[in-house]
Amino acid sequence: MSRRRDGVLDSHEMTGVLPSKERLAAGPVVVIECVENIPCNPCVDACPRGAITMEGDINQTPDVDVTKCNGCGLCISACPGLAIFVIDASRDDGTATISLPYEYVPLPSTGETVAALDREGNVVCNATVARVLSPRAFDRTPVVSLTVPMEHAGTVRHLRRKVG
Q: For the chain, first and last CA: distance in Å?
């Protein structure tokens, strides 16, 4: 994630930031895809395990120690840039769970079928809403967990509710 152009990471370069396939298969793990070079570090304070760190320049993308991360997701709602999500590819049914921030209303409902989107907003596949968390501690940033086909776990970054 070191190649930046005018302070912004090219979204096509972000594909290399995923943890290894072995780590993804071991259980939930956080992925941070900051695309802006701005001063920000609330994710560091939000991580109770110290898995997210930032050395030196507060403008840099935080580092994640995937050996410390248990995928709790507390950092998801702490990120003002909506650039953090959790992937759980440890399921043995051919699907993965992606937990991501969702700041639209109305919130989707558990069990709802939605369109899963990539970074550019293109539809990747259908997804099922597995869980919606919106506790007061999340500061008005609900976290929606989607079940997607395993082959799309590294691509899905948002959702669009289906109309009709």
A: 40
